[in-house]
Amino acid sequence: MKRICVYCGSGVGKGSAYSDAAAALGRAMVEKDLGLVFGGGKIGMMGVIARAVLAAGGEAIGVIPESLMARDLALDSVTDLRVVADMHERKALMAKRADAFIALPGGFGTMEELLEILTWAQLGFHAKPVGLLNVSGYFDHLIRFIEHAVEERFIAPGYRGLLLVHEDPSELLAMLGRYEPLDVDKARWALDSRSDR
Question: Which of 36, 116, 127, 138 has the most CB atoms less than 10 A away?
Fold first, then answer.
């Protein structure tokens, strides 16, 4: 593992816990000689983690769409800034440059990116670890939703292992490092025939 793609919000949320956790993750990544791949923005959690990585002497690779670059939202002090045509190209390049993924607290965009990269893992498009830094229980409802979807047979029980969860940045990084890719074919199961009626 050399680089981690971090999905996170363009805001910092309520209180300081979220931004503190983003900065702590950035420092922990540099301590483990891990580079950052992120959305390239200077605002919100994106800016917090990137600045923490850079301040600690680490590598931060930003990937930002032209439309956001034109709005002066890019962090220009990054190690490498890639300007792409749109969000689809942004996500594909971020995934290609990273060896693992972590989602920090965020909104619609963060949720969409996290669920898409989990879906790609489920489909066998990649075998990279995906983590969730559950700061102050932020993702508790999402974790309960996933458990509910498993109970209701929309997510196979074997796919639970695709998402690694911890509240401590260093522990989550250690979990990513120990990750053994799932055999996604073995994790699948046949849905009850009544489910498509």
Answer: 36
